[in-house]
Each structure stands twice: as C-alpha cells, then as structure tokens.
C-alpha cells in the first residue's frame, strides 16, 4: 500500500527541494522562508503547499504546528544558510551567527519526523578539519537520528549542471540511509538542455520556436506548451564584443591580456561548454555566458540547467528570478534523493 509522507520545507526558497519531493509522491504541507519574492513563486507552482514568510531563527515550532493544523510531520527538508560557521571553537554551532542552522535542529527536535534531509555547500564537510560536519552529526545523533552524509554531483542524476551539494540524511530507529547510485552514465550537456531556446526573448506565453531537440528538452516541456521566463539581457556593445572573443567552453584566459583583468573574479567571462554540463550557475552575477550567444542565460535557460520543468513559472523581476533559480536545489536531484528515502522509509 502506498503511503504519502507529509513534509515541511525550511528555508524553502522558490521550492526546488519541495518540487523534487512532490514529484516523488510526498505531500508538502508547508514551505517557510523569509524572502517573500521566492514565496510568491513557491505558491504559484505548489498549488497545495502553504507558505509562511518568517525568520526561522525566531519562529517557534508551535507556530508551525498551528500552520499545518497539527498534521503529522514525517520528513523535514531544507538548506539552512551556514555562513556563520567558523573554526573558532569545537562547539561552533552554538555561535550566535548559526541560529538559522539551530532553528532546523529545533524543528526536528520538536516534530521528531521519521527522517530529515539537510543540504548545504560541499565545504561544510571539511571546514575546520570536519568540526562543522561532526557538530551537525552529533546534534542530530543526540535527537535519536542515524546520520549519513555525502557530496552529490547533480550531473550524475540527470541535471545538466556540475553542481556539488553536501547532503545530510538522518533517519530514526537506527536506520541508515543509503545514497542513490548515479542515474545517468552520460551527463546531459548544455546544448541538450537549452538549444531549443532562441537568441532573442520570447514573450511570456509565446510558442516554442521548434520541436524539442533532445530527450531532456522533451522531459522539461512535459505538461507545458508555451514558453515563460525567456527574457534575455541586453548587454552593451562593448560587453558583447568581449563575450564574442571567448570561444565555446572558454574563459577570460582566451581574451587579450589587457582585457583579462576587466573583471576581478576568476570565473568572469566564462562561456558554457556546449558539450558538457554547465558549471554551477550563479545567482545573477553575469559571469557565465551562453555557449553560443553573446549574452548571459535567460531565467528559463538557467531554470533548465537546474532541471526545473518549463511548467514551473518564476515570478518577480529579472534579478529576483535569477537569484531564486540560482539558490535552489535542482528538482531532479531532490527527486532522486526523495525516491530513495521513500523506499527506505518503507
């Protein structure tokens, strides 16, 4: 007999993790975040999921319980910002700056879900020689969870992006979560992801300019017959001239010496490689460019590289949309984790 597990998503953003769990058959009760822009997008796309705009460091579990009408919480998911983690001391998670992480612990302690999934940046496992990692494991072990962790590469799971994320999974009752094996042997490339989207903008609700040109594009178009969020950025002529000098898959080293220092970050002037997955997409800093066109990716192209389906429409201005997309967990990666967890919960 199939069972729908109830989920709350902390620090949910626009809902990449929620979408993955939803597609794996979970019931999303509530998404919580303090950025209203992202919650507008969340509500637009998760028709059954409620949202709460709140600072989790100040939010009581009792208030959350009221929001979900005291329904059972089976799984808690989320990615608490952990910038506060330092290597100053052994119990660094007691640092005031880490109150957002501690809010996650507090919710798990209160609701005692069957499992939790916490995602973060990969170096959270190595900071201070593993002090942060060990603190996280200890905090949840004390609550009765068996915690496992691993860095997963999104392109191993069908996402056309070499995005690495540290995933912690805790299960009650001494169960050990086993991470899923890669689901693809050949990664999806940038070209396979976005080659059907044109150089110029498409007005929201416009038609696709061509049939899908790859299996991945067909997958992303499923349930959607119109294009949304493909509004391109019009760079000035000088910027376009510089981008044009960088070949497919190239970067600032391909520019003349006098232009190499025009931006002071090493990832600047990087052009995607059409035959490889994208590098980790940024949140709208305009350092990465389309493999063919002399511009940054549109929100829809970025969403494709994150594995958001075309039916998932982002709300807000262009800057906000790119930030929402860049901060999200790739839904396809989330779905693989959610599916593996569901099997093991049974």
TrEMBL record:
Assigned keywords, A-Z: Methyltransferase, Restriction system, S-adenosyl-L-methionine, Transferase
GO BP annotation list: DNA restriction-modification system; methylation; negative regulation of gene expression via chromosomal CpG island methylation
Name of the protein this chain belongs to: Cytosine-specific methyltransferase
InterPro entries attached to this UniProt entry: C5-Methyltransferase (IPR050390), C5_DNA_meth_AS (IPR018117), C5_MeTfrase (IPR001525), C5_meth_CS (IPR031303), SAM-dependent_MTases_sf (IPR029063)
GO molecular function, one term: DNA (cytosine-5-)-methyltransferase activity
Top EC class, one word: transferase
Family indicated by similarity: Belongs to the class I-like SAM-binding methyltransferase superfamily. C5-methyltransferase family.
EC number, UniProt record: 2.1.1.37
Catalytic reactions on record: a 2'-deoxycytidine in DNA + S-adenosyl-L-methionine = a 5-methyl-2'-deoxycytidine in DNA + S-adenosyl-L-homocysteine + H(+)
NCBIfam families named among the record's database cross-references: dcm
Highest taxon above the source species: Bacteria
Active site (record annotation): 82
């Amino acid at each position: 007999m199939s069972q729908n597990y109830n989920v709350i998503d902390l620090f949910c953003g626009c809902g990449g993790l929620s979408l993955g769990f939803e597609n794996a058959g979970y019931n999303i009760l509530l998404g919580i975040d303090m950025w209203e822009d992202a919650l507008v997008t969340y509500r637009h796309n998760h028709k059954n999921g409620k949202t709460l705009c709140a600072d989790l460091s100040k939010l009581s579990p009792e208030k959350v319980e009221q929001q979900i009408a005291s329904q059972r919480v089976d799984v808690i998911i989320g990615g608490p910002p952990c910038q506060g983690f330092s290597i100053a001391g052994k119990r660094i998670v007691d640092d005031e700056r880490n109150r957002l992480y501690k809010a996650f612990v507090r919710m798990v302690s209160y609701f005692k879900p069957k499992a939790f999934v916490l995602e973060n940046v990969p170096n959270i496992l190595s900071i201070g020689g593993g002090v942060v990692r060990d603190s996280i494991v200890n905090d949840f072990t004390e609550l009765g969870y068996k915690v496992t962790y691993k860095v997963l590469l999104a392109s191993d799971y069908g996402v056309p992006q070499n995005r690495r994320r540290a995933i912690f999974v805790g299960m009650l009752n001494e169960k050990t979560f086993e991470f899923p094996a890669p689901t693809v042997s050949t990664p999806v490339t940038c070209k396979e992801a976005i080659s059907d989207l044109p150089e110029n903008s498409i007005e929201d609700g416009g038609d696709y300019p061509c049939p899908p040109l790859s299996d991945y594009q067909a997958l992303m178009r499923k349930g959607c017959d119109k294009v949304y969020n493909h509004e391109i950025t019009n760079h000035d002529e000088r910027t376009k001239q510089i981008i044009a000098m960088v070949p497919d898959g190239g970067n600032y080293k391909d520019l003349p010496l006098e232009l190499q220092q025009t931006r002071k970050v090493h990832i600047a002037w990087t052009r995607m490689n059409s035959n490889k997955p994208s590098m980790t997409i940024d949140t709208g800093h305009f350092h990465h460019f389309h493999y063919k066109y002399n511009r940054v990716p549109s929100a829809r192209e970025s969403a494709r590289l994150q594995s958001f389906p075309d039916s998932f429409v982002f709300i807000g201005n262009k800057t906000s949309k790119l930030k929402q997309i860049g901060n999200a967990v790739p839904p396809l990666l989330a779905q693989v984790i959610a599916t593996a967890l569901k099997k093991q919960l049974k």
